[in-house]
Design brief:
The complex is a heterodimer of chains A (424) and B (514). Chain A is α/β, with parallel strands linked by helices and 424 residues long. Chain A has three domains: 20-59 and 109-126, no CATH class; 133-140 and 235-423, von Willebrand factor, type A domain (Rossmann fold); 149-227. Chain A contains twelve helices and 14 strands. Chain A has helices at 17-26, 28-40, 116-126, 161-174, 180-191, 195-214, 252-272, 292-297, 306-320, 343-357, 380-390, 406-423, and strands spanning 4-7, 51-56, 67-68, 72-76, 87-88, 109-114, 141-151, 225-234, 237-245, 275-283, 287-290, 327-334, 360-366, 396-400. In chain A, helix 2 (28-40) packs across helix 3 (116-126), helix 5 runs antiparallel to helix 6 (195-214) and helix 9 packs parallel to helix 10 (343-357). The longest helix of chain A is centred in the middle third of the chain and has 21 residues, at 252-272. The longest helix of chain B is centred in the middle third of the chain and has 22 residues, at 255-276. Chain B has a four-stranded mixed beta sheet. Chain B has a three-stranded mixed beta sheet with strand order 1-3-2. In chain B, strands 4-5 form a two-stranded antiparallel sheet. In chain B, helix 1 crosses helix 13 (278-298), helix 13 runs antiparallel to helix 14 (304-317) and helix 13 crosses helix 15. Chain B is built from 22 helices and ten strands. With 514 residues, chain B is an alpha/beta fold. Chain B has helices at residues 16-32, 48-55, 67-82, 108-128, 130-135, 141-159, 161-173, 190-206, 211-214, 228-235, 242-249, 255-276, 278-298, 304-317, 333-349, 353-358, 368-378, 381-388, 391-397, 423-433, 436-439, 470-484, and strands at 41-46, 90-93, 98-103, 400-404, 412-417, 442-448, 456-461, 467-468, 488-493, 499-505. Helix content of chain B is 53%, strand content 11%. Chain B is globular, with a radius of gyration of 26 Å. Classes of the chains: A alpha/beta (424), B alpha/beta (514). Chains A and B meet through strand 1, helix 1, strand 3, strand 4 and strand 5 of A and helix 1, strand 1, helix 2, helix 3 and helix 7 of B.
């Protein structure tokens, strides 16, 4: 019998994709909850990794008629020492009751892996993120030159020899320009032929040579030049500065608000730039660059000098991130406390050093959990930034008390920025 | 060393001509030495990802779309990626031609093993076992699945995916009670099914006349109240195939909903024999691959190294952890099945005195393959174990029987062990573990209150005090009520006809059904 062997390896995979999407659609609320929960435990950069989430199976449960309780009988292998009539204690060890493993396992909640895109979509969907890609952020652009086909005019240095010759060949063939060998062969024949034939050949040679003269080997219309185009190339890397006040007055809640804002900014930047770096600067009365863990969780105490953080940021920009190569974004979170005497230093650093090199500077003033945003009194820092803004400094400031306000504020900040740009 | 040019392959690499050579060599042995009778074979080589796809649709190459398969897929993909789960080396489909999926990662030895196992072992079992013959239509299944997939997609287009999803959810919940357990009607012909559905739709379309909608319905005939006996007879009650009952008798289902129930029911029926023959099916396939591989090695077609590789995976497959082992999850059907097949061979060819007492019919009859082929054709797990599990094997596995009776405060009782007093009881208990009659709850439709509120009445015959899980039962009944579109009640009754519990459910949305 002939056996059929079929190679299915090249068949398109992902046959289950549609079922998977149906499942996600059905589980949307659950998945969103899980995504939200899992994003709380994640580091900022991991937000975009996608990855595993755990779902409670309540809504996704597929009920069956199942029986439970009653007298259970089981036949098991591997008897060591039991004899008929033994009574095995229920809770104890002794291996008496192995409670049918494998039954009901993994049914209460189950873990599965979301792809990166699915995760980000759900993460942003949860926040009802509008299509931010349409809003333009100012970008530092550099130009790059690249080939863009051929042109009929240009500098001699850019002549494309191969293109020109091939066009000339095509034209010569099309117009039937006699080949030199044909002419040479006729001339050779002319040298040793009979009289009668001679006249014939001469006439033919004449017409061929006339044709040769009329149809040039290379015509100016054959010539092609390589064309170059300069295109603005967005700088594909960005650095995001997270500045945060970590003095004693900042509560966990405030830090969580700040973290969510940073996350959004990171997601946003990550969608636009190939490479995004994050610099964490925390400050009390002096500033230091730290890693993320320390940034959000590390203990610190002391007074508050915002200028120290700005100075640190400025130093880091100067040493590591050349503004020509990097898009610089900064987001500052604070509860608004600042030493009165520091105001002038802050104003000067911002207007002279930071804002000129930054794409965007956002200030987020975070309040108490129970607080109402419009109730928040204007803090010293807020009043200072407000004054700078009125004087025309391109910075944005918002107040936030609750998690759910983070996204609207974020959205708002970028929308405003878009308007300003159009005016400019 | 025998002439190496006899080898089917060298090393671990294979290509398609190798597969062809392997299957030819296997077939030679399968036909001439084992006397197997098989469907034509089709071997398909697939990638791991495709294997995962196949997992989530019950191993079938195509299936209708439903979110639950996506859930299954998400779950399996996660376990696979984390390394919690290895993938099977093959999947085989009970169809004609018999399709075996082989993983591309398998080495040449593994491909040989898998071809012998699936394309010959399982294939023979599918073709010859009475349950498969009776309940499944190997020729028609792939066409039927194709039809089901198309039909579900059409329904989604016509009636909206949500309505279809609701109906399928409900049907899936009742799937385990959507099979005929006893033969009686004619065999299933899936191809005719498909034609029937097509014809019915054509007829509906051709006979459609909007005017009929406007014809006033006559007064309801409130004739004499049917006697309970006659009513039940008309409705075909009692009926334990809940899906069949709903399909035929639910008053307010649309034609397409009935067809969906029918599809789910047919597919459940198709898989039903597989759940009853796990031990036998795997035992047969493992025995066949063991015989074929050993023979190939004897014939010099398999090198010593490759044979060792085979033995290693073979012994992994038939490993039976003991009950107190961390990896224990019940009897391994491969281990139990293979051990029993080998044991039968031993009893037939070189019986001991004990075997002659226990198995007078087959002991020493000489032709092992004839006996095995007969066993493979005419038994299912439950009858197979209760007939052929020998005392020797019970001793080998050191089996014992535990009875966990909640009434017994002192603990769990060891009811029988592998000794002279216990053999028969052990065997009966183990056989019962494989009896679908005991595995699934015995639920049947007993009556409909036609004169009153059209309540559908079900009854669960409680065995050994095991009642239904309340939360799940209510959910399933909810689905049932939504299909029935009137109230549904279920009583749980024990052996002495005492009502232990009653569940009542009202349909949640009439709109979804109407």
């Amino acid at each position: 019998m002939v056996i059929h062997i079929v190679d299915r390896r090249l068949n398109p995979g992902s046959k289950s994709l549609e079922n998977r999407q149906r499942f996600l659609r059905r589980a949307k609320a659950l998945v969103q909850g899980a995504v939200k929960k899992s994003s709380q435990d994640r580091d900022i950069k991991e937000v975009l990794e996608g990855g595993e989430i755990s779902l409670p199976l309540d809504g996704m449960h597929q009920p069956r008629f199942r029986r439970e309780g009653g007298t259970r009988d089981m036949v098991l292998p591997g008897n060591k020492k039991f004899v008929e009539g033994d009574l095995l204690p229920r809770q104890g060890q002794g291996g008496g009751k192995s409670s049918n493993p494998g039954e009901g396992d993994g049914e209460d909640s189950f873990r599965f892996v979301l792809s990166r895109d699915e995760f980000v979509d759900l993460f942003l969907d949860d926040l009802e993120l509008p299509d931010l890609a349409k809003r333009r952020l100012a970008e530092v652009e550099s130009e790059s030159i690249h080939r863009a086909g051929y042109t009929t005019s240009g500098s001699p240095a850019n002549i494309s020899v191969s293109r020109t010759v091939s066009r000339a060949t095509a034209r010569r063939v099309a117009l039937r320009r006699p080949r030199p060998e044909v002419v040479a062969a006729l001339e050779a024949e002319l040298a040793e032929c009979s009289e009668a034939r001679r006249a014939e050949i001469e006439a033919e040679l004449e017409s061929l040579k006339a044709r040769l003269r009329r149809i040039p080997f290379i015509d100016p219309i054959d010539i092609r030049y390589r064309r170059f185009e300069a295109t603005p190339k967005p700088v594909a890397q960005a650095v995001m500065f997270c500045l945060m006040d970590v003095s004693g007055s900042m509560t966990e809640h405030m830090k969580d608000l700040a973290k969510r804002f940073y996350m959004l900014l990171y997601v946003f930047l990550k969608r636009r730039y190939r490479h995004v770096e994050i610099v964490f600067i925390r400050h009390t009365d002096k500033a230091e660059e730290v890693d993320e863990e320390t940034f959000f969780r590390g203990p610190a105490s002391g007074g508050t000098l915002v200028s120290s953080a700005l100075q640190a940021m400025h130093d880091i920009v100067r040493s590591r991130f050349r503004p020509a190569d990097w898009n610089i974004y900064a987001a500052q979170a604070s509860d608004g406390d600042n030493a009165i005497s520091d105001s002038e230093a802050v104003a000067r650093l911002l207007t002279e050093m930071i804002l000129p090199v930054s794409q965007f500077f956002a200030y987020l003033e975070v309040g108490q959990d129970s607080g109402l945003t419009f109730d928040m009194p204007d803090s010293s820092l807020w009043r200072l930034y407000e004054r700078l803004r009125l004087e025309g400094a391109p910075l944005s400031a918002r107040k936030v008390c609750e998690r759910k306000e983070i996204f609207p504020v974020f959205h708002d900040l970028f929308k405003r920025r878009g308007k300003q740009e159009r005016v400019a | 060393m025998a002439a190496t040019d006899q080898l089917l392959f060298h090393g671990a690499d294979w290509d398609f001509p190798t597969l062809q050579r392997i299957s030819d060599a296997c077939e030679e042995i399968a036909r001439s030495e084992l006397g197997l009778s098989i469907y034509p074979n089709q071997i398909e080589v697939i990638r791991a990802e495709q294997m995962l796809d196949a997992y989530s649709s019950g191993g079938m190459p195509l299936f209708y779309k439903h979110w639950s398969f996506g859930k299954q897929f998400a779950y399996e993909e996660a376990s696979y990626r984390k390394g919690l789960m290895g993938l099977a080396y093959e999947i085989v489909i009970n169809s004609s031609p018999c399709i075996s999926y082989l993983m591309e990662e398998n080495t040449a030895t593994m491909q040989t093993l898998v071809i012998a196992h699936a394309a010959f072992g399982h294939n023979h079992f599918f073709k010859n076992n009475y349950l498969f013959k009776q309940w499944t239509d190997a020729e028609g299944i792939l066409d039927y699945l194709e039809f089901a997939k198309r039909y579900v997609a059409q329904c989604e287009e016509r009636h909206g995916s949500q309505a279809v999803e609701q109906t399928l959810d409900a049907a899936h919940a009742l799937q385990s009670h959507g099979v005929d357990r006893y033969a009686g009607k004619k065999n299933l012909d899936l191809r005719a099914e498909e034609e029937r559905a097509g014809k019915r739709r054509l007829h509906e379309e051709s006979a459609f006349n909007d005017l009929w909608r406007t014809v006033p319905a006559g007064p309801v005939k409130s004739g004499a109240v049917l006697s309970a006996e006659r009513r039940r007879k008309l409705l075909g009650l009692p009926q334990e195939n809940l899906l069949y009952f709903l399909e035929k008798s639910a008053p307010r289902l649309q034609a397409w909903q009935r067809e969906l129930l029918r599809i789910v029911r047919h597919i459940a029926q198709y898989f039903y024999p597989q759940s009853q023959t796990k031990v036998m099916n795997e035992g047969t396939a493992t025995y066949v691959h063991y015989r074929i591989m050993t023979r190939l090695h004897e014939q010099g077609k398999l090198s010593d190294g490759n044979f060792l590789e085979f033995l290693k995976s073979h012994s992994n497959v038939v490993f039976q952890p003991e009950f107190d082992d961390r990896g224990f999850s019940g009897f391994n059907p491969y281990a139990l099945g293979f051990a029993m097949m080998q044991d039968i061979e031993r009893i037939v060819t070189s019986p001991e005195q004990e075997d002659r007492e226990w198995f007078p019919d087959i002991a020493g009859s000489g032709d092992a393959m004839a006996v095995l082929r007969d066993v493979w054709a005419n038994y299912r797990d439950e009858s197979f174990i209760s007939q052929f599990l020998s005392p020797r094997l019970m001793r080998h596995f050191r089996m014992f029987h535990l009875r966990d009776d909640p009434e017994q405060q002192e603990g769990i009782r060891v009811d029988a062990i592998h000794d002279e007093r216990g053999f028969r009881r052990l065997r009966r208990e183990l056989a019962r573990q494989y009896d679908v009659g005991f595995i699934d709850a015995a639920i049947e439709v007993v009556d409909v209150d036609l004169a009153g509120d059209r309540r559908l009445m079900l009854r669960h015959n409680v065995v050994k005090g095991a009642k239904l899980n309340e939360a799940d039962a209510v959910r399933v009944l909810q689905h049932l009520a939504n299909l029935w579109s009137y109230d549904v009640s279920l009583v749980e009754v024990d052996e002495a006809d005492v009502v232990l519990k009653e569940h009542k459910v009202t349909p949640s949305t009439v709109a979804a059904v109407a």
